Amino acid sequence: xxxxxxxxxxxxxxxxxxxxxxxxxxxxxxxxxxxxxxxxxxxxxxxxxxxxxxxxxxxxxxxxxxxxxxxxxxxxxxxxxxxxxxxxxxxxxxxxxxxxxxxxxxxxxxxxxxxxxxxxxxxxxxxxxxxxxxxxxxxxxxxxxxxxxxxxxxxxxxxxxxxxxxxxxxxxxxxxxxxxxxxxxxxxxxxxxxxxxxxxxxxxxxxxxxxxxxxxxxxxxxxxxxxxxxxxxxxxxxxxxxxxxxxxxxxxxxxxxxxxxxxxxxxxxxxxxxxxxxxxxxxxxxxxxxxxxxxxxxxxxxxxxxxxxxxxxxxxxxxxxxx
Length: 323
Prior knowledge:
Blueprint: E1 2-6, H1 14-17, H2 21-24, E2 27-31, H3 39-46, E3 51-54, H4 63-66, E4 74-77, H5 87-92, E5 96-98, H6 105-121, H7 124-132, E6 150-154, H8 158-169, E7 173-177, H9 183-188, E8 192-193, H10 196-202, E9 205-208, H11 222-227, E10 232-236, H12 245-253, E11 257-261, E12 281-283, H13 292-310
Parallel strand pairs: 1-2, 1-3, 3-4, 4-5, 6-7, 6-9, 7-8, 9-10, 10-11, 11-12
C-alpha cells in the first residue's frame, strides 16, 4: 500500500482542518507532529514513504536528504515557495511536486508584523511577564508611542503594502525601499521611496518584507545595523538570512536596537541559541502564516493533490524549476 507522511504538524491541527478519510481509504497515512532532530533522523523516519506532504519550510530537504529517500514519488508543498526545499532536484529525481494555494497568508503575515511592532514598542512581553510575577509595572520598561514615528519597509509587495497601510493608520510616516521599487509604486502603496541607506539610518521601525534571493541575502548586514538610530525596532517576518543574525544579536544585547522576530536561521531554535537569552527581543515561533484560515486551505488541497496523484492525474503540479 502507498505510504503517505504528513509532515511538520507542529501545532497539531492537520487532522481537524481536512477530511483525511478518502486518502486513508487508499493509503497508509502517518502524521508527524514533532520536528526531526537531524537530517539522519528525517532520513530514517521517511525512507519508506512514497508521498511526503510537507508544511512550507519546517523540515529542510536538501539534496543530501532527498538522495536518502528512495521510495519518494510525490512531494506536496503548502504554498508555492520554499527556499529550504530543493524543488528543482526533486523534479530532477522524477518526483512529482504539487503545491497549494496560500489562503490568507498575506493578511496573516502582515498582521503578525504589526503585532510584533506593537509588542516591541510597548514592551508587551516584559509587561506580561512582570504582571505574572506579581511585580506589575515594577519590572516593565517604558515603551514608546508609534504615532509620528517613521516606519521603514524593506520590500513593498503585497505584505509590505498592507504593513504600509497599518503604519499610516497609526499616524506613522512610511518610507520604503527595494531593488525594483519606484517612486510611483511606493506612492501608490502610501509610502515614500528612499534609498536603502537613508531608510536604515532614519526609520524608527524597520520591517522586512523581501523575498530571499542572492540579491537580498544579508541586505541588513553589520554596517546597516551599526547605522541604525538607538532604539530602532527591527521586525522580520520574512526570512532570517535577510539579516546578519550575529550582528543583530550583538546590537540587541548592547541595547542599541530591539529585534522582533518570527523567522530564524534554524527552526526550531536550538535550546542554547543566543536569541533565547538575549534582551531587547520579541520572539514568535514562525507564526506568520500559521492561522486556521490558512491551514484550512493548505490541508484540504494537500489531500486533493495526493488523491489526484494516486489516480494518475496529478493537479497543481509545480512548473519545472531551474537546476
